[in-house]
Amino acid sequence: MKQRIAPLSGTITRLIPEITALYKDFHVHPELSMQEFRTAKIVADYLTKLGYQVTDKVGVTGVVGILHNGKGKTVMLRADMDALPMAEKTGLPFASQTMGQTLDGDKTPVAHMCGHDLHVAWMLGVASVMMAHRDAWQGTLMLVFQPGEETASGALAMLEDMKTGYPLPDIILGQHVMVGKAGTIGYRAGSILTAGDSLHVRFHGKGAHGSTPQNAIDPVMMAAFTSVRLQTVISRETAPQDSAVLTIGAIQGGTKENIIPDEAILKLNIRTFKGSVRDNVLTSVKRICACESHASGAKDPEISVINSYPVTENDRVSTELLAESFTTFFGERAYLTEPAMNSEDFSQFGRRWQVPYVFWFVGGTKESIWDNAVKNHTVHQIPANHSSLFQIELKPTVQAGMEAMIVAALTWL
Ligand SMILES: [Zn+2]
Ligand SMILES: [Zn+2]
């Protein structure tokens, strides 16, 4: 693999300033899920200029670039494009100041605090290198720029528009920048990311004046008791060797101190690795929400799904091949990673098309910060993806992510 990449390395190095500038541009102009119009236009224009066969507006804002380069395998590479409805507090000179509107109409700050801006920039760099070095590989390259990862809607939306007219890939590859020493590559066969389920629970009470609780069914109490009781789903109902997470991220009810409201809302998020654990946790959550309502004398709550991500389970044989390529190229910088309790809709493509897929992590934490944290056992304190302080050390991360995708693609091409 080292010999195969060697002729490409000059092009990769030459591209770094351009790809870094593209990254910063995406970072300054973040766009919310399924509204990635500006990003998608830049991507489509860039690929068209390179000479790719480009289809845009796939699943609203998705872009697919295809390059046929002789006989051989078809490799699909995927990058997600959306930012998050949150403010950035890194204080970086190119920090986001953007305000946006969610699809529900709520005004919110918008920032790329998950690193999808880097994912897009990386893959544009890869597109450029693979086009410039068509003599170094054979087959078909399919680049998929996906909208709406953060809402679990983008991959499914693209799949609806990709039923015909696209080659079926032999392998699907994707990567995510994460907390980890900058420039390292973490791979893992089998489960690497959890399933994620987000639920919206509406408790129906009966409103009254705050001075007459006897006339009310208090939904605030229902939400409060349920929040506490739900903690026992993990601590008392889940085996210690089966990891699972249940977080109540929002608890909302009422407007004023002397009004008992009609209803209260809980929004919760569940992460699991095993299908059986996922089923049990979901069943228990529904049971507890209903039973706490009944305990208050209220009717059943309304429970709806906000989003649902399947587990990301890397194909074993393909991951072994990839691990060999990564170790040959990156040496000690490639390592066997622990699974992460994050979720992705990346696997939807492989699931729908029944094609093996591999997803891996690229470390983006400044080396000195990482080494200190490891020494002091404070890795968990490094601001991670979705923190307003999440920061990527661009050198060497820009280069490592481009190299990882190229090394991975060439494993099949
Ligand atoms: Zn994210
Ligand atoms: Zn992400």
Tell me what the structure shows:
With 413 residues, the protein is of the alpha+beta class. It folds into two domains: 1-193 and 311-411, Zn peptidases (Aminopeptidase, 3-Layer(aba) Sandwich); 200-309, Alpha-Beta Plaits. Helices cover 37% and strands 27% of the residues. It has helices spanning 2-28, 37-50, 116-132, 154-161, 219-235, 275-295, 316-330, 347-353, 367-375, 394-412, and strands spanning 53-58, 62-69, 74-80, 99-101, 107-109, 139-146, 171-181, 185-187, 190-193, 195-204, 208-209, 244-253, 259-260, 263-272, 302-309, 312-314, 334-336, 357-365. The strands form five sheets. Strands 1-2-6-3-7-18-8-17 form an eight-stranded mixed β-sheet. The longest helix has 27 residues, at 2-28. One zinc ion (ZN) is lined by residues 114, 150, 385-386.
Summarize the structure.
This protein is an alpha+beta fold and 413 residues long.
Any low-confidence stretches, pLDDT <50, length ≥5? none
Please state the second-level CATH architecture of the largest domain: 3-Layer(aba) Sandwich
Proportion in helices = 25-40%
User: In angstroms, what is the radius of gyration?
Assistant: 23 Å
Distance between the termini: 12 Å
Name some characteristics of this structure:
single chain; eight-stranded mixed β-sheet; 413 residues; alpha+beta; Alpha-Beta Plaits; Aminopeptidase; four-stranded antiparallel β-sheet; binds zinc ion; 2 domains
